Amino acid sequence: MAVAKESPPVSPKSGVDQEAEYRAQTRLWLRLLACTTLIEGELRRRFREEFDFTMPRFDVLAQLDREPSGLVLGELPKRLMVSAGNLTPIVDRLVEDGYITRTPSNLDRRVQIVCMTVEGRKAFRRMAKSHGSWLAELLAGFPAGRLDGLTSELDELKGAVRDAMRKP
Amino acid sequence: MAVAKESPPVSPKSGVDQEAEYRAQTRLWLRLLACTTLIEGELRRRFREEFDFTMPRFDVLAQLDREPSGLVLGELPKRLMVSAGNLTPIVDRLVEDGYITRTPSNLDRRVQIVCMTVEGRKAFRRMAKSHGSWLAELLAGFPAGRLDGLTSELDELKGAVRDAMRKP
DNA sequence: CATATTTATTTTAAGTATAAAGTATCAATG
DNA sequence: CATTGATACTTTATACTTAAAATAAATATG
After folding, report:
1. What's the whole-model pTM score?
2. In what order do the strands lie in the sheet with A71-72?
């Protein structure tokens, strides 16, 4: 029963369905953008107010925190989805302010190795703690039991988008 | 049965639970950011390549497209979640390129009214069409039947974050 | 009506973003 | 060993981003 109500399992979709799907996709994208903008803006504001620090700088420290022996500079753009040209002045500033060091490799003089300093690590830990509690504060109203479910959905979305970008 | 396994219905949470929730929240935030960055980057790239246009400019046109009689300039920062100072040069460029007009109000000489031109509207329609199909292409791998569900979850998340930001 | 406050917008300063061109170094080939 | 190509990084040009100060016009208050 209920055979007639089933939509065809494969393409081609009717114009109406296609339009509805377009709209649903646009809604999803706008919501995604709104959530991210909202949270990102608030986190950035607090970083600035509390620590006079920016998120890109924090992101770099976060990567280095897990690498006691430092990281090849070229690894950072890959991990942070940031362009290399963009990274140069950020790293410059972090070095200048004493959070990290940048030393040329002996084996390959093109390569630079960046490494967190002791003070850098200390500052990072302090900021990371605040970051965590800010996030907890912002997300407190969302049911804890559904955090993981939403995360998996987004994981799937990310995978789908990545696949779509790889193909053509 | 299974009484002992139930977690207490209200706070205070145990340290372990609190830590687990922190991690889940952080995971969600990182995933959210990754999805948005991925899609946004790709859309921006295509806008640039196909139309030599940026997304903020497109966003302004999108707002004006629905307002045949134009919009008070001050409305745009509110709708687009963009600072006013940021908008000025964007509007400047759009006026310069003939997509919109900016005319001072007769009633209040502080106020400017921005309005799409005929060519602006034409250009916008063309770009909006591409935008829609790019998005469809990127999201094609995500099951259509779950678009709305994910959108509602994000809606709820957005509401929760907004509430958290309003309170303190 | 003069002064004070608010509101709309612009300007400025510092920083972030990409793309694309440039420089330096390394590796591979003839 | 000179040339060619690839790699690591920096520089440049252009644009976006916010916060905060500045300007200018309207409104409110004494």
Report:
1. 0.88
2. A71-72, A112-116, A100-104
Take residue A2 and report the two structure tokens written for it. 């209920």
pLDDT digits (tens, 9 = 90+) for A1-38: 444 444 444 555 666 788 889 999 999 999 999 999 99
Strand D lies under 7 A from the Cβ of residue A123: no
Amino acid symbol at B2: A
> From the Cβ of A70, is strand C under 7 Å away?
no
Sign of the CA dihedral running B79, A151, A143, B13: negative
- Measured distance CA(B140)–CA(A52) in Å, rounded: 41
Number of A:B CB contacts under 8 A? 163
Distance CA B31, CA B106 (A): 49
Minimal Cβ distance to B132: which of A22, A139, A151: A22
Contact A28, A21 (CB under 8 A): no
Both structure tokens of B133: 């199909």
